[in-house]
Amino acid sequence: MAKIARYQQIINDLAHQIAIGKYRVNDKLPTEAQLALDYCVSRMTVNKALSQMENKDLIYKVQGSGTFVKESTIHKQFGSSVSFSSDVNLKGEKPGSLLLQYRLLDPQSFPAIASKLCIPMDNEIIYFERLRTADDTRVAISHTYIATNVVPSVALDELNRSFYAFLEKKYDIKPQCTNYEVAATIPTKEQAKLLEISNEALLKVSHTSFTQNEVPFEYNETYYLGSKFTYTTKNDCIKLR
Predict the structure, then answer these.
(1) Which domain of life does the protein's organism represent (predicted)?
(2) Which one is predicted more confidently, 80 or 148?
(3) CATH number of this structure's domain 6-69, picked from the four choices 3.90.550.10, 1.10.10.10, 1.10.300.10, 3.40.980.10
(4) CA gap 186, 178 in Å, rounded
(5) From its phi and psi, is residue 144 left (phi > 0), alpha (psi between -120 and 50) or beta?
(6) CATH fold of 74-232, please?
(7) Is 16 helix (H, G, I), strand (E, B) or coil?
(8) b/e for 173-211, b at 16 or more Cβ within 10 A?
(9) Structure-model confidence comparison of residues 50 and 4, the more confident one
(10) What is the pLDDT, as a whole number, of residue 16?
(11) What percent of the chain has pLDDT over 90?
């Protein structure tokens, strides 16, 4: 196995500390001299690590003041099953959720959703709406539909945390594939009020998630602030409209 260069080890470690919240947005990092002592390397190695982190938009430098954690857009990748919480954590911010609605739906009244979930008509669909936040800033509204033939129940208090973490712990479900649809949209009055915006466009992202056995269990529609999220492509499983 190839040995990881020291500067890359520093990048990995600092990025991890940002992800777990040790350093938050706009927090000042230790000086290059202190980092050189901490990692037992030369200042040249530290400088190389910080320069690459700056190029990746993880940090920014202020002449005469130091190096700080940068607030930037949250990058998501099509074709991956990384949760909202993980994406926000990776940017050094704290994810949050506020439950707006929770109810059970009759599949016969929502045939399009039932079709996406391949759910028997005698089962119910769990529906919940959440306001998603990053460092207490409102950044998205999500609408989630869950097939009860795969996920029989969801405790309300679990919806204030990472839903995917709950699925893995409770049902051993690790989403393996997602089909995406993307559309730019103007917020409704209700969405604008919830997100505390006026004229900002939203990015509507819809996806269907599957279990390890390729059984559909979730259909989700999330409206993201266009200024806060950037999506990158990974595969051809995308339909743009």
Answers:
(1) Bacteria
(2) 148
(3) 1.10.10.10
(4) 25
(5) beta
(6) Chorismate lyase (3.40.1410)
(7) helix
(8) bebebbbbeeeeeebeeeeeebbebeeeebbbbbbbbbb
(9) 50
(10) 78
(11) 54
